[in-house]
Amino acid sequence: MKKALVLIYDSFAEFEISILLTCLNSPQYKVETFSVKKIDNTVISTGGMKYTPHFIVDEINPEEYEILIIPGGIPAPLMNDERLLSLLQAFFNQNKLLAAICAGPALLGAAGILDNVQFATSLDRQDSEYLNVMNWENKQKELLVVDQGVITATGSNYLNFAEEILIQLGIHQREEKDCLKYFRTPSAG
């Protein structure tokens, strides 16, 4: 069974990844979570939900995973965590998929991954906390960008983000007509 890894942290935006995780958690994939917290590692999402990660960052071996997913939220407090930044670099250097949405790409920027990778994000130069970690020249106007195994998107583009990850992992085919139609189109019964 293949595995996907999700970073969870205080303030992470669970709505940006909930549909993705629903589709990903299958007989093909196991979803595991991790945090940088060592003591009382419960994290509280933007929605106020409490989550307990499966692992802490020190316990992660990138070779066990196909992808690392970073939801948005307020990741600024994590931008100087060398353990996390080293882990992100290891995933990138091992050609593993990295996916980040909304403000999540800031952690990729802090790890130096976005120095030569084009990206999308909900952040802009007005977000002063993130000004020095992002290579703003590589920010694209598109709502979703895939470059060098890095998938990034704006926060409100979470369905297309999920769909692209499912395609990149081979769970869905690009030719499929809207594989997330169930989530896009309300039904009456």
Task: Provide structural commentary.
- The longest helix has 12 residues, at 82-93.
- The protein is built from five helices and nine strands; from the N terminus they run βαβββββαβαββαα.
- It has 189 residues and is of the alpha/beta class.
- The strands form two sheets. It has a seven-stranded mixed sheet with strand order 5-2-1-6-7-9-8, with helices on both faces. A two-stranded antiparallel ribbon has the order 3-4.
- α1 packs parallel to α4.
Cα-atom radius of gyration: 16 Å
Low-confidence runs: none
The N- to C-terminal Cα distance equals 34 Å
Order of helices and strands: EHEEEEEHEHEEHH
The helix tally amounts to: 5
Write the layout of secondary structure elements.
Blueprint: E1 2-7, H1 18-24, E2 29-35, E3 43-44, E4 50-51, E5 55-56, E6 67-70, H2 82-93, E7 97-101, H3 105-110, E8 144-147, E9 150-153, H4 158-168, H5 181-184
Protein traits:
seven-stranded mixed β-sheet, 21% helix, single chain, globular, alpha/beta, 189 residues
How would you briefly describe this protein structure?
This protein is α/β, with parallel strands linked by helices.
